[in-house]
Amino acid sequence: MGFHARHGSARVGFETRLDWSLDREIGIFPTRPRVRVGHETSMDDEQIACFNRAQSQRFDELHRRFLEPLPADVIERMERIVAAPEIRPGETVLDVGTGTGALVPLIRRYRPGRVIACDLSANMLEQVARLHPDVERHRVDIRDLELPRTSVDVVFMNGMFGNIADKQGALANVGRMLRSGGRVVISHPEGRRFVAGIARADPFPITPLPSPEQAEALLRAAGLAVRDYIDEEKLLICLAIKA
Ligand SMILES: C[S@@+](CC[C@H](N)C(=O)[O-])C[C@H]1O[C@@H](n2cnc3c(N)ncnc32)[C@H](O)[C@@H]1O
After folding, report:
1. Phi, psi for 73 (deg, rounded to 5)
2. pLDDT tens for residues 103-129?
3. What is the mean pLDDT of the chain?
4. What is the pLDDT of residue 216?
5. Residue 162 to residues 101, 151, 241: CA-CA distances in angstroms?
6. Looking at the DSSP assignment, which residues form a beta bridge with residue 242?
7. How many Å apart are CA 220 and CA 218, to the nearest integer?
8. Structural domain of residue 176, as residue ranges?
């Protein structure tokens, strides 16, 4: 099964207030006239918490789909994603929005010292615990993950960047946790057009992936410099380094 089927058509019951605020802030409901190209949010903490509840509810519902085997071409693209930051043996790797841990076996090939998973969905993290018991798990918005400053070498944000409510806050925290010379990869194994399609077709809150200019601006604000931006029909890999 591909990513298409994984995202599925499950609907979450949003609170009326959330519907209204998402429509106002990022144009999700009902006709999305105002998608914010800069990826900044003006949602307050309560609205972000509401947005995150919608995320965890949806991915709690969908978690079984993420256990089904991926087609070979998707795995090949995920291998390219995991190869991008050139993980060195012993490094600490943080997988953000890890889901059921699809990247974990690919990350392991590089013999990291420590693998850390962060996700909002309890059901997803339960599967990580079952399948990869040695992976450290945190159920929290990446914006609020409290790992020590400069304690991480590599961060993956695969197939999930569009799902983050506060992208600037999330990257600021990633920049804080990364050591100097640390790398972050924002990626999607189905590419930007796929995510833009979901954002158009589905009332679920997800934003299109950043263009090169948007990625550069967002990452620069977090102290990260874009090194590579690979934008293929079915693959996005944006690699950035902390100065
Ligand atoms: C498409 S899924 C899984 C993607 C996974 N990386 C993979 O490659 O299969 C996206 C995941 O991101 C999680 N997520 C969404 N927003 C998040 C946030 N702000 N912080 C951490 N995880 C988040 C969701 O709960 C969901 O499990």
Report:
1. -70, -35
2. 999 999 999 999 999 999 999 999 999
3. 86
4. 96
5. 18, 25, 20
6. 224
7. 6
8. 4-242
Q: Which residues line ligand 1 (CB under 6 A)?
A: 55-56, 59, 66, 96-99, 102-103, 118-121, 124, 141-142, 158-160, 163-164
How many structural domains are present in the chain? 1
d(CA 16, CA 53): 14
Residue 29, both tokens: 């409901």
**Helix, strand, or coil here: 11?**
coil
Distance CA 243, CA 234 (A): 30
Nearest-atom index, ligand 1, CA of 102: 9
The pLDDT tens digits for 136-179 are 999 999 999 999 999 999 999 999 999 999 999 999 999 999 99
CATH number of the domain enclosing 109: 3.40.50.150
* Angle at 164 (CA atoms; ends 49, 89), nearest 5 degrees: 120
- The letter for the amino acid at 36 is R
